[in-house]
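Consortium newsletter contribution from the modelling node. Members have asked for a concrete example of what our holo predictions look like. Here is one, prepared for the pyridoxal-5'-phosphate complex that several groups have been discussing at recent meetings.
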Amino acid sequence: MSAADATGIPGREPSPPWSSRDVQFDHYGGQRLPFGCTGASGIIQHFVELSGSDAGRAFDVLDASGGYGSACLGAGSEVIAAALSDGVRNAGYVTDEIASSERSLLLERLFAPGGLFADRFPAADYRVSGRNSGSEGMELALRLVLESRFDHRRLRAAPGTGERDVVLAFEGAWHGWTGGLLPLMNRRHYRIGLPAIAPEPFGFRTDHIPFGDLDAAREWFDRNGERVLAVVVEPVQGDAGILVPEPGYLRELAALAKDSGALLVADEVLTFAKTGQFFGMTDESGPIPTDITVIGKSLGMGALSTSMVIARRELGARPTGTVSTSDLRPLTCAVIRAGLDHIVSEGLVERSGKLGAELGRLLHEQVVAKFPDLYVEARGVGVMHGVELTDLAAARIGKLRTSMIRNGVYVEFMSGAGRRSRGLRYVNATMRVAPPLVATADDIETIVARLAAGSHALLQETP
Ligand SMILES: Cc1ncc(COP(=O)(O)O)c(C=O)c1O
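And here is the predicted structure:
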């Protein structure tokens, strides 16, 4: 029996057989983190060392990741527990063939006049479909884009649409894992060896330009004009390293798309409820209109994996073209409604906007400025912050991760936008600091203090 098999938390028997984690695909090339989690409450996670002389040591970490940015209410929310329990007992499971009262209540709450999202997505102009994950939502969005050129009756390109075959995406883009999305991803590593969508008929080409560079966007639209079918954008690029565009960029991009007759797709899977607003496609003048918006992650309140595709009504796919077993399941709708009502009544999104500004300041002062050998800069908004690593830290990323965890804070590391063209500088891997919405001002201070302690400890280690 290995040390890992023997570990567990005293008083919490039976110890789980940790070695069974080998059954799950290893995405980290044998470098998985040597920790187990035995439970969590709020943003505190109970960890245990799985190997080495400390195997079996139990300790707590503050969560500054939200499980890839999905657990906006942390762990153990009573509101979500009640909604799940009541939903399982009472909500039923009818599919979209039958109207469900839970589904209707949610759609009313979000899209009817005065609804939470009605200022940007009034029910008269938009429709919605539910999916199980962000990837599936983005896949449906892409499908709606492609089918917008399609004459469903004649099964060929609709008149005047056949020439539109170029989709604009961005360097560092991350939109999900499923097959159709591969061309949009600016990641050769994930694409190679897998088929691309055939060019004819109804195929498309994807171009990637630097994110946040308006001149590059203008020049690209000048060159591609009426061939542009769609623009697919993350309002804040997540996996690329938490890249926040300059004010005005997203609105101008939306205008360029509109003027060229292209559809604008906002991938808000990650940004939903995390930028100090519900939607990242927002500026001082209010909502920035989109043709399709996909939200996910936080939408499932950390309890369910779900996403929503909100699309202009005229983007109707062929009948049954968007059907899915779990499209807006009553239970899912009950959880979303309870969670959103709670977030609104507690003012959590607004609060996260204010705390986020403080988080950014503290990260700069106590992490970046104090450890220039490890960090280049901190950037972010709301509860989405990134601290970019120097070459030195990027080369020791595994040790940095474990050092942070052993110093009591859990953060994730994004791969970064890699080598960027057009004179934009290289973006290294980036530490993502994205605590759940329920994190308090004290939590934020403690998270930053522990990040500083973890950085200090790494520098004390012999390389
Ligand atoms: C911007 C963005 N889009 C889509 C996805 C895919 O979502 P999921 O992992 O739920 O399929 C992610 C996930 O990381 C994401 O960050």
